[in-house]
TrEMBL record:
SUPFAM superfamilies (UniProt xref): Nucleotidyltransferase
Pfam family, one: RsfS
Keyword flag Repressor: yes
Official protein name in the record: Ribosomal silencing factor RsfS
Length: 136
């Protein structure tokens, strides 16, 4: 018997993205709620920074694995896996942005989408309790 995976809301997807980021020690995690921003292309941006190309790749892989385990989904679209300066994972309702620090500062998405509601995630937050909240 094949068990169908749970369909996730934008909020649940964004929490899973955060969990994947925390698993690989991402820095400066911000969730941008774009639902009340006129002409927004998605409901949520989740942005983080990594220190090295290897860490950036590991964070993106962790995000993909967390969402796939919970829902069976893979990104609808992804970019940047080759150069690993800015990896984008598009899950339609949620877009994850994994930046190298200098690239994040250059593109400054937080200012570009200044009308969005921002939630900063503490880097000291433990990923496992967050995961339990998501699963329940």
């Amino acid at each position: 018997m094949i068990k169908k995976k749970k369909e996730l809301s934008g909020e649940e997807l964004s929490r899973l993205v955060v969990h994947g980021m925390l698993e690989k020690k991402a820095a400066n995690i911000v969730v941008m709620d774009l639902r009340n921003v006129k002409n927004a292309i998605t409901d949520f941006f989740v942005i983080c920074s990594g220190n090295t190309d290897t860490q950036i790749d590991a964070i993106a892989t962790s995000i993909d694995e967390e969402i796939h385990k919970a829902s069976g989904l893979h990104p609808w679209h992804q970019e940047g896996k080759q150069n690993r300066e800015w990896i984008l994972l598009d899950y339609v309702d949620v877009v994850a942005h994994v930046f190298r620090k200098d690239r994040r500062k250059f593109y400054d998405l937080e200012s570009l989408w200044g009308d969005a509601e921002l939630t900063e995630i503490a880097e000291s937050m433990e990923p496992e309790p967050l995961k339990q909240i998501l699963i329940d």
